[in-house]
Design goal:
The complex is a heterodimer of chains A (509) and B (1026). Chain A contains 20 helices and seven strands. With 509 residues, chain A is mostly helical. The relative contact order of chain A is 0.13. The relative contact order of chain B is 0.12. Chain B has twelve helices and 58 strands. Chain B is mainly beta and 1026 residues long. Chain B has a 22-stranded antiparallel β-barrel. The chains are: A mainly alpha (509), B mainly beta (1026). Chains A and B meet through helix 1, helix 2, strand 1, helix 3 and helix 6 of A and strand 25, strand 29, strand 30, strand 31 and strand 35 of B.
Chain lengths: 509, 1026
């Protein structure tokens, strides 16, 4: 008996006081129901999912409020006003429209976080790709090229929106959160160019895609963005370099001008012959109102394009269109200027004409009775499931051939290149539009190119950036409150300055 | 008796009843020690048998006993005495008055202590206090019976849990105390315990008492000890009651005529038309509360227990059945529990003990939604117009397209009415209940097994294993139905879930007790390992080819796309080492030190183990010369404690970075959706427990022999409460959860007892009152406040948490009466002379421009009430006279507010409570209830304001019970030891100014969205002992 007891005692002592030896293992639980970051990135499928997540922020429009760049950039330009139901509907949109932005007011927080979320995912993916040793090199190289394109794309938006931003090319540790400093725009552009050149030099990055891969990065998209990034740096000495890159795209044989201008923005014509880079939206992930408004870099559940709902006519009853929220009413200025241009009807909805046909809508804030046509909500294209306001499937034609041709023409003229070729690009576009060719050279030609950009690309979100980068913003937007040297960029979000303790506000804010 | 013998032999592991000895006859007299009077009715028993008698009117007794017997003399209010017969034939006994509550022991973690030398703040509830109280869950046993514990029943729904707060709300994360039953921590399903199985409940309130539970002690610890077998003859206890329950209150709402008049008024005031031409002809209309409430709902309980033992073994075994119908919709709101228990203790050798506890319970419950504006039966009853009939009988309506085209709901009495006026979730409540077919169940097996070896005298080694194995699940069938335009189901569905969880805990410790002269030491040192793991699975199937819920099954071979499943797993582990050293000198100077360290899977890699020290001191002044044998102050102890407690209720996997999906993007011409995966948040390897530091000073005293007083003052500071850390946006991901926020609680507690234990009239009164003040002190650099609860689809913010204010205070505009005339509206201007409320008209609420910035806007909202009561009080009173007894128990709170959010203001035609009849209708008619106007331009109702806040104080007579115990002479004939019959009324009256259904609102932060009220019960019951 005694013996047994002693054994029992010893056993129990071991049980309790010997626990320390195995407590490390005991307390190490492999998360059940959740995948640890350290356990992910183990298969090609998982890497592909990480790549998808890197594309995901492209389509975000609900970070810190409604912050869709397309609509916002229209409001900031002279193409449209901010609109909405009244001045207090979306104060941050009105603030950019009227240039009453301040560090706490404006769309800057959402635009900042969205792009840095994309950069974080790209950085993480690139790090994980570099760490692994089991994937096939074809997959690795293409994924790396796409990730670099996406990182460049997000940085390009950041640099043109904010000017001075921190350059982060790896995931940050907690001790690095408060040590980040802004760098001059040139360093960001250098990173953008370098990432894009890496992508372009990746042989696995395809020139054309099979239909089931439409929407992924191509050589054409990377080259177009590279040319654009060079153009935006305003270095006349590099204009011919940009032009050459654009011409590579134009002459690649992959892209053609859509014969009929009016067809470009039909949803049935997504990834048409002119399309180089589209932001994909779809209605196949219905959501509800609770889904989509994150106050930080996180997930947006629906795949819908919120711009479409914004641009529609408020309380609209009538043919063709679905009702919307009357944002971005087209300015009288644009409507008047385009009055005799054949592209008017495909660019601008004439509300008065619709009303004469018996349609009705409620006039919103800054109503002009002109509305955006290219991204208008079409009743037949509405989602059939979920909250349809949040599920418009219209892709954003972010880079299309006409844009690239006009950029090529601009670069040629500014760089002292072949003006005949430049006129040729412009006139090809005018011919397609159904209007007469232009002539002229030098500054006159350049001005005609800029005007052509305005008409061809109206309400596509390019105008504000074109005005700023070519130094014409004060002249055109001055009466709206634009001040050169201040409103070229948005204020750095005040919360970023507060939380980092190391960022500096942009001048003038 | 054969039956009992059979049971004895069944249950006893070892039998050691004494064999027959020669019988002798003993006589004697029992007298009172202080007054030298005979003690009448004292019991005289041969120890360990049921051979006994009682003293007569002169205190004399006579009993035949074996020569070597030991006689046990006992009487209520006196200390027991044992005398060995040893051949004596006359034994006179003097019984001493029992003031020995001080000799009483209390259970502390890993041991017991004499109450007189306890240095912490511990409250105890004994089984006697709970007998024949119709309490369905353990939490109810805690309500009102001790100081420092606030228990608010979630609702009156059968089986509803309670919110238990020990010394206030300790954390913004989770403030639920730790429940430990016979050494097994129980989280979830504490209702498995049957009331009759509970021997005692100890509430460890201060840091030093709770500290032995380390990382789980910050919210206080409730130790439950179940009954054990007693040495002696077998005792059978049978307790039973049956009763009926009814709602104690209806809320006055408008009848159809009044509704018509007021809706007309509101419509016309908004420039609309008359809605009801002749409201006077509308009559009473439907009384929805009458339809929803259930009359005479049944409640009954039956418990039977057996216990016996000898010097080797003892057991306690019980079986019980409890059933309660709801006072709302008895088919959909009910609760049943079957439980059984077997506790045994055995002495293997003089130095080795083993024992076990084992309980099984099964709970079946059905519940209706409660306290929500989105579809609870009572919320609907308050909001649905009285014009809608329960059953639609109008042939024109029945022929309308809604009734002919849609699957409207009906029962054997007809087709349920559908409101024309009130929409959204405010449905015909009876129709909505008719399509609700959900139920839940649980099976729980809780057991423990221990062995204790006394290695040398005073040194014990104890090892135990405890398990809590639970199975639970639910199922529900939703038939095809149409309730109104926004509440219809076109495809039926059936879902079921089944879950299993196992918690096990392995503990071993050494305990050493030794007395050297006047030095008394007690040491405990040990460790434990614990795992709480579980998994569950649920599935659903759509479009079943059936209508009857009884036919619902998951086995229909439906298309896979019509089937879905989900599941979960969890696995939390804890490793702990603990020690306690207690020392007292001459029972006069007391010291206790507790150390515990806990390692948890919930803590980050950089903080895997937490360390929780505490210390407490005491000084028994009545042991000093100057107070010894003082006739006024019989006992006086001053004590104080300090300690650090932790809370590990912080969620699992918060410190690691996990990845999540649904970061989707579409590729391809056909918009093919691809799943994107990325990390959910930045990791925080520093994540750790929340920590509470508490100091306590207290006094325990007994004066005039009969009055006991316990006073405590405490201050509790909680820090490291979990909140999300905001990180700069350029980091690119959501910040981690971190240990950030701080909070303070302070308060004092008073427990008072007064008893008279000397017959024939005996009574005891115990009262307690507690004061608690809560203040949130810090929420991080980046947050000014935390959003709290909202109301209505508009998401009106109605609670907030802000540093400097109590947690979850009510938030909104302050009001200043009503505008009585246009002049007052016009005169309400800012410094610039601009109207402050440009949309107001006479009869509208005047909101206060609190920040005086000249406009009334969201910035003017402030604290308008506090849902946490400052004062909690309770009392019990028991008295007995010649077999009759009376038991009363009451409980209440004071200095507390309720936010009455029962009306869906967003639905303009929703019914109103009767106080709307006192609305403003002209100058001087009301200064509180604004005019009624449909579009409400001044937003009288659609702003959160103090208009909605009411005084929530109440005092409730929870139980009043009158019983009669049969005299011994009758009992002897019945061969019974005790038979008591009683009638009992519960919730007989409630003192409150609150106008809603019930001021006791446990679920939902003091917001009444149509709470399921407590029922008023009338019971008849018996307690019998054989």
């Amino acid at each position: 008996m005694k013996r047994t007891l002693n054994k029992y005692l010893i056993f129990s002592f071991l049980l309790v006081f010997g626990m320390s030896s195995c407590e490390k293992n005991f307390l190490q639980v492999t998360g059940s129901g959740t995948t640890l970051e350290t356990d992910f990135y183990k298969t090609q499928e998982e890497f592909f999912q990480a790549l998808v997540a890197t594309y995901d922020p492209l389509q975000w429009g609900g970070t810190d409020g409604w912050t869709m760049l397309l609509g916002l950039a229209n409001a900031a330009s002279d193409d449209t006003h901010a609109g909405g139901s009244d001045a207090s509907d979306q104060p941050s949109w009105v603030a950019w429209d009227m240039f009453t932005l301040n560090p706490d007011l404006g769309p800057q927080s959402g635009l900042w976080k969205k792009n840095y979320a994309g950069i974080y995912r790209a950085n993480l993916l690139l790090e994980k790709l570099a760490e692994q040793d089991f994937l096939e090199s074809d997959f690795v190289n293409r994924t790396m090229a796409e990730a670099k394109f996406l990182r460049a794309y997000y940085y390009f938006d950041l640099v043109r929106l904010f000017g001075n931003v921190p350059l982060i090319t790896s995931t940050l540790g907690a001790d690095e959160f408060s040590t980040q400093m802004q760098v001059p725009p040139s360093e960001i552009y250098a990173q953008v160019e370098s990432d894009l050149r890496d992508a372009i030099n990746t042989i696995e990055l395809p020139t054309t895609l099979p239909p089931d891969e439409f929407g992924r990065v191509t050589q054409g998209a990377a080259k177009s963005l590279l040319g654009k990034a060079i153009l935006y740096q305003n270095n006349e000495g590099r204009m011919l370099e940009a032009a050459a890159i654009f011409e590579e795209v134009i002459n690649s044989g992959v892209y053609f001008l859509e014969p009929n201008f009016g067809d470009i923005f039909k949803t049935s014509n997504e990834f048409g012959p002119e399309s180089i880079w589209e932001i994909q939206y779809s209605d196949n992930r219905p959501g509800d109102w609770g889904c989509c408004f994150a106050s930080g870099p996180t997930n947006q559940q629906t795949e819908g394009n919120y711009n479409i709902q914004f641009f529609g006519m408020r309380d609209y009853v009538g043919p063709t269109y679905a009702t919307g929220w009357s944002f971005c009413p087209v300015s009288e200025n644009l409507a008047t200027a385009m009055q005799s241009d054949p592209r008017f009807q495909h660019t601008i909805i004439d509300g008065n004409a619709l009303q004469q046909q018996g349609a009705s809508y409620s006039p919103g804030y800054q109503n002009t009775d002109y509305f955006i046509r290219k991204y208008a909500p079409i009743a037949d294209e509405a989602a059939t499931d979920g909250v349809l306001e949040l599920a418009w499937k219209n892709n954003i034609r972010d880079i299309r051939l006409a844009d690239v041709m006009l950029m090529a023409a601009e670069a040629l003229v500014r760089g002292g290149g072949d003006e005949g070729a430049a006129r040729g690009y412009v006139n090809a576009i005018r011919l397609r539009a159904g209007t007469i060719p232009i002539s002229g050279s030098g500054q006159d030609l350049l001005d005609r190119i800029y005007l052509e950009r305005r008409f061809e690309l109206a309400t596509e979100g390019h105008r504000f950036f074109d005005l700023v980068r070519t130094g014409r913003a004060a002249e055109v937007l001055g009466d709206r409150g634009y001040v050169e040297g201040v409103h070229n960029v948005l204020p750095i979000p005040q919360t970023e300055i507060d939380l980092s303790g190391s960022l500096l506000q942009n001048p003038g804010y | 008796m054969n039956f009992k013998k059979l049971l004895s032999s069944l249950f006893l592991v070892a039998s050691g009843f004494s064999l027959a000895f020669a019988q002798i006859s003993v006589t004697g007299k029992v007298t009172d020690g202080s007054e030298n009077l005979p003690v009448i009715g004292a019991s005289v028993f041969v120890k360990g048998t049921d051979n006994g008698t009682i003293t007569d009117f002169d205190g004399n007794y006579k009993i035949d006993v074996p020569e070597d017997a030991v006689l046990l003399f006992s009487y209520i209010g006196y200390e027991d005495q044992e005398i060995a017969v040893a051949g004596q034939s006359v034994i006179n006994i003097i019984l001493n008055e029992d003031i020995a509550e001080l000799g009483e022991v209390v259970v502390v973690g890993y041991g017991v202590q004499k109450k007189s030398v306890v240095t912490g703040a511990i409250s105890k509830i004994k089984s006697d206090d709970l007998e024949s109280m119709p309490i369905s869950r353990l939490e109810g046993s805690l309500q009102g019976r001790t100081s420092g514990v606030r228990v608010t029943t979630s609702s009156g729904q059968p089986g509803a849990g309670s919110v238990v707060r020990i010394r206030g709300t300790t954390s913004i994360t989770n403030s639920d105390p730790l429940f430990v039953v016979d050494g097994v921590p129980i989280e979830g399903g504490i209702d498995y315990l049957s009331q009759g199985d509970i021997e005692s409940i100890e509430v460890l309130k201060d840091a030093a008492s709770a500290g032995i539970y380390g990382a789980r002690s910050a919210n206080g610890v409730v130790l439950v000890t179940t009954k054990k077998g007693k040495e002696g003859k077998m005792e059978v206890n049978y307790n039973s009651y049956i009763g009926i329950q009814n709602p104690w209150k209806k809320v006055d709402v408008l009848n159809a005529r009044e509704y018509g008049i007021l809706m007309n008024e509101a419509s016309v005031a908004a420039g609309g038309s008359i809605l009801f031409e002749n409201p006077d002809e509308l009559g009473e209309g439907t009384d929805w509360q009458e339809e929803v409430f259930n009359k005479n709902a049944l409640i009954h309980s039956n418990e039977i227990s057996f216990n016996a033992g000898n010097e080797r073994s003892s057991y306690f075994a019980s079986f019980s059945f409890f059933s309660q119908e709801g006072i709302v919709s008895p088919d959909q709101s009910k609760y049943e529990r079957i439980s059984m228990r077997m506790n045994t203790d055995h002495k293997i050798t003089d130095r080795l003990k083993v024992g076990n506890t084992l309980a099984y319970s099964r709970v079946n419950g059905r519940g209706v939604a409660e306290n929500t504006e989105f579809g609870s039966p009572l919320g609907r009853a308050l909001n649905l117009d009285p014009l809608t009939p329960l059953y639609e009988t109008d042939p024109d309506v029945l022929a309308s397209s809604v009734f002919t085209n849609f699957p409207v709901v009906s029962d054997e009495n007809g087709v349920f009415g559908i409101s024309e006026y009130v929409t959204s979730e405010v449905l015909n409540p009876i129709a909505a209940l008719a399509v609700q077919h959900g139920k839940g169940w649980s099976d729980k097996i809780v057991g423990s097994l221990f062995g204790e070896w006394e290695i040398i005298d005073g040194l014990r080694f104890r090892s135990s294993v405890g398990t809590d194995l639970a199975f639970w699940g639910s199922e529900g069938f939703t038939p095809v139905h149409y309730l109104n335009a926004s509440n219809r189901v076109d495809i039926n569905s059936y879902g079921r879930s089944q879950n299993r969880g196992l918690r096990w805990i392995l503990e071993s410790f050494l305990a050493y007790d030794k007395t050297f002269g006047k030095h008394d030491i007690n040491l405990v040192a040990g460790g434990s390992a614990e795992q709480n793991a579980g998994r569950g699975i649920g599935g659903s199937i759509q479009d079943l080819p059936i209508d009857d819920p009884a036919d619902a099954s998951l086995t229909f071979p439906n298309d896979p796309s019509a089937q879905s499943f989900y599941g979960f797993e969890y696995d939390d582990r804890l490793i702990s080492y603990f020690g306690r050293a207690t020392y007292n000198f001459d029972s006069k100077y007391l010291l206790s030190v507790v150390l515990r360290t806990d390692g948890s899977t919930k803590f980050g890699d950089n903080n895997k183990f937490g360390f929780f020290p505490s210390v407490s001191l005491g000084w028994v002044l009545t042991e000093e010369e100057f107070l010894r044998n003082n006739q006024i102050i019989n006992f006086l102890k001053i004590r104080g404690s300090w300690g650090i407690n932790g809370s590990d209720r912080i969620g699992t996997d918060l410190f690691v970075s996990t990845v999540g999906g649904d970061r989707n993007y579409t590729f391809g011409l056909n918009d093919d959706l691809f799943n994107g995966v990325s990390p959910n948040a930045i990791a925080n390897p520093d994540l750790r427990w929340e920590e509470t530091t508490q100091i306590n000073v207290g006094v325990d005293a007994r004066i005039f022999k009969r009055i006991t007083i316990t006073i405590d003052y405490f201050q509790k500071n909680t820090r490291d409460m979990l909140l999300g850390i905001a990180v700069p946006g350029f980091v690119g991901n959501v910040g981690p959860v971190g240990n950030i926020a701080t909070m303070e609680n302070s308060g004092f507690e008073l427990e008072l007892g007064f008893d008279n234990k000397k017959g024939p009239f005996t009574f005891d009164f115990r009262g307690n009152i507690s004061y608690n003040q809560n203040e949130v002190t810090f929420l991080g650099e980046d947050k000014e406040f935390l959003l709290g609860a909202t109301f209505s689809p508009q998401g009106l913010q109605i609670t907030r948490t802000t540093p400097g204010l109590p947690i979850g205070y009510f938030f909104g505009y302050q009001t200043d009466g009503l505008f009585q005339n246009q002049g007052e509206v016009d005169a309400y201007v800012n410094a610039e002379g601009e109207p402050l409320q440009p949309l107001a008209a006479p009869g509208d609420i005047r909101f206060i421009d609190l920040n005086q910035d000249g406009i009334i806007d969201a910035e003017d909202r402030t604290i308008i009430g506090d849902p946490s009561p400052a004062w909690t009080l309770g009392f019990t009173f028991n008295a007995e006279y010649k077999g009759f007894d009376i038991r009363a128990f009451g409980q209440g709170v004071m200095d507390v507010d309720i936010y009455k959010a029962t009306r869906r203001f967003d639905l303009q035609m929703a019914n109103l409570t009767a106080d709307a009849l006192g609305r403003w209708t002209g100058e001087g008619t009301s200064d509180h209830y604004p005019r009624l106007v449909m579009n409400d331009p001044n937003r009288n109702f659609s702003r959160s304001s103090d208009f909605y806040v009411e005084d929530g104080a109440y005092f409730r007579l929870k139980t009043l019970q009158i019983g009669y115990s049969l005299p011994t002479s009758v009992l002897e004939k019945l061969k019974m030891d005790r038979l008591r019959i009683y009638v009992s009324g519960n919730n007989l009256f409630t003192l409150t100014n609150y106008s809603g259904f019930d001021p006791e609102i446990g679920a939902g932060f003091g917001i009444d969205r149509g709470i399921y009220p407590q029922a008023r019960f009338y019971l008849f019951g018996i307690n019998a002992t054989f």
